[in-house]
Each structure stands twice: as structure tokens, then as C-alpha cells.
């Protein structure tokens, strides 16, 4: 089977990091060795992209970050990750699992920040061209649950401090995009972690069988 690019998406604390690790376990059991799998995250995943991530997440900025700056910094980080890590890894036969990717920008900057979607489409095209994930697992939680889990976590970063309305708009954008794309699998992540893991396994194994 040809190596693939798999993405996990969702609101804060939807369980994306946990899901990425479960996917690696399942791939291992499916016969894909750990050294053939690369786990990465966005924004981040290269030294420069990780520096750009701190600009996005740091809650103690010396000045206000404009919406456009936020968008451009996220795409700059994505360009670094794509050309220096993701594409080379795929080229040498590795499976790539990413904790967030381009759909996050549509949801957060397009939905949450209400930036013009043509602008985001254009930037997507400049940075990614026709490069898409083979499959995306979207873990759906309500903004209420998102904020409850953030409260438990404490020490919130810049975006995690956003309002319920912001997360409502972000989630609605995710839900809209899912309806337009068959390669995005919806997983109800309001359920117990065990149930989420069971569903993820079911969908991933089914998809792998058909590759
Ligand atoms: N961003 C990112 C943009 O605005 N635009 C973009 O284009 C991109 C790429 C960083 C920020 O950047 C923004 C969005 C973000 O604000 P991030 O590092 O992915 O993005 O940050 P988070 O979304 O905050 O990710 P986290 O790592 O905090 O959360 P995860 O990975 O979703 O969740 P996980 O697995 O670490 O679990 C978190 C907690 O929730 C519990 C877990 O046990 C854990 O304690 N949990 C559950 N509890 C009960 N039931 C369940 N089903 C649970 N699932 C998880």
C-alpha cells in the first residue's frame, strides 16, 4: 500500500493529540513500522515553524496581532513544514500524520476571525497548490465542551482565550467544510475517550482496507 498523509482536526482539546497517537498504534498493528511514520503538528513541526507558532499562541504579546498577520504567519509556518518536512517524508515513503493542517485555517481564520474566504483560498493555493491530505479525521466537540476542557487545563494560550462565539463560528465552519468534502470523516468527540478511540479505529481500518 502506498504511504499516505493523514490529518486530525478539531477544536481545542477535542482529543487530536490522543487521536494522532492512536492512529500510529493502528498503523503499527497494520504492519507499518514506527520508523516509517512521521508525526507532526501545525503550526509548527520545523524549528522556524515552531518559532512562528509561539507568535500565534503566546498570550503575552508586546502588541496586538492583526488578523491578517495571524493568517500570514500560519501560512508561513505551513510553507516551511510542507516543503522541508511533509513532502520530503512522503517522497521517501513515510506515512505522515499531522495534528491540524489547512482546514484549521479555513475554520479558525475564515470562520472564527471572519476573514474573507477568497483570501484564504488564494493563500492555500499559493502555499499548497493541489496538495491535499489523503484523509482527515475531524473530532467534533461543542464549544461548551471545548471551554469546559480548557478550564480544566488552565494556563490558556492566545487563541484558547477566545469567546464562545469565536469557537461557535469556528466549529460551524468545520461542519460546513465537512459537508463539501468526502475525505473528511466526522467523529463525535463529545463521547467518552474509549468510544472516540473505537470509532476512530473502525473508520481508519475500513479506509485502510480500501486503499
Ligand atoms: N490554529 C492552528 C489556527 O488558528 N489556524 C491554523 O491554521 C492552525 C494550524 C494551536 C492553536 O493554533 C490555532 C488553533 C489552536 O488554537 P493546537 O496545538 O492544535 O493548536 O492546540 P489545541 O487545539 O489546543 O490542541 P491540544 O493539544 O490542547 O488538544 P487536543 O490535541 O485536541 O487534545 P488532547 O488529545 O491533547 O486532549 C486534551 C485533553 O482533553 C481530554 C484529554 O484526556 C486531555 O486531558 N480529552 C477528553 N476528555 C474526555 N472525553 C474525551 N472524549 C476526551 N478527549 C480528550
Automatic annotation (TrEMBL):
Its Gene Ontology biological processes? dTDP biosynthetic process; dTTP biosynthetic process; dUDP biosynthetic process
**To which protein family does this belong?**
Belongs to the thymidylate kinase family.
Q: Which keywords does this Swiss-Prot/TrEMBL entry list?
A: ATP-binding, Kinase, Nucleotide biosynthesis, Nucleotide-binding, Transferase
Protein name per the record: Thymidylate kinase
Chemical reaction(s) catalysed: dTMP + ATP = dTDP + ADP
Q: Where is the Thymidylate kinase-like domain?
A: 8-198
Q: Which organism is it from?
A: Candidatus Pantoea edessiphila
User: Highest lineage ranks of the organism?
Assistant: Bacteria, Pseudomonadati, Pseudomonadota, Gammaproteobacteria, Enterobacterales
Which gene is annotated as encoding this protein in its UniProt record? tmk
Q: What is the stated purpose of this protein?
A: Phosphorylation of dTMP to form dTDP in both de novo and salvage pathways of dTTP synthesis.
